Here is the input.
Amino acid sequence: MASPAEGAAMRRAIALAALGLGTTSPNPPVGCVILRPDGRIAGEGWHVRKGEAHAETQALARAGEQAAGATAVVTLEPCNHYGRTQPCREALISAGIRRVVIALIDPTSRGEGGAAMLASAGLDVEVGALADEAGILLGPWLTAQETRRPVITWSYVIGGHGITPLPAESADAYRLRINADAILLSDGSASEAVPGSHGGGILTVKDITPGTDARDAATALYEGGVRNLLLHGGLDVAGPFLERQLIDRVVAYIPDSYESQSPAASLPWPQLPPGFTILGLSKVDGFARIEAERSR
Ligand SMILES: [Zn+2]
Here is the structure.
């Protein structure tokens, strides 16, 4: 069982990992906290983008010699492969970490990941701490790994003129973009959602030729490193993805200037596409905001 101090540290690690949203793909957002036996935090870190230091090595660097005998609390299983950086399990072992508390196992490790190596090196390893809460952050990345396509979000305004794109200059449009890897417009043009946010050359986002099957388009974007895709437009961009049940989440807006009246005649459904259920409702600048996901 993770101790209360370890649970508190895990919540900190999960929150820190959120700083990597929209920049780490194709890598996952990960956070790590180094906890001293007296409950003090000696170092913390998070992964910013592919090719840069992992959360564990950032946290170990901050902790320095304080890492010896400490517990590493990390949201995802430490890696076990030699890439551009040393494997994190090796860094944890050589820093003298005694115990490792992990929320979720990395499905790409196929049981031969860092957790097994850490345990066989004699460290005390605990897996599954606050897994549900870590899943709020890592869920989309894990889903994308499993389905081999990005998690797809569609944002739209629904009002007297039917279904229209969210104005690009609205604060919420920017908020959606910084959480996504790529954005796809009605004309098939695809681009990094915030140019340069992943570091040059990490994402290879190619335009989608009109008429390309939506599943093939999603696969191509996944292969280019995209894990979170934002559809920006009306039914012209979303229609083919809806038809193939490839949209996971919608964020719908009703302008707050909207007056009670007869609905626009052109609407295919009153508010949400069939199969979606409401997750959250809020008022944002100029709109009521309705967040929904495909029912599972
Ligand atoms: Zn790593």
About this structure: The helical segments are 4-17, 55-63, 88-94, 114-120, 131-147, 171-178, 214-223, 235-243. The domain at 148-294 is CATH 3.40.430.10 (Dihydrofolate Reductase, subunit A). The pocket of zinc ion is lined by residues 54, 56, 78-79, 88 (CB under 6 Å). The chain has a mean pLDDT of 93.
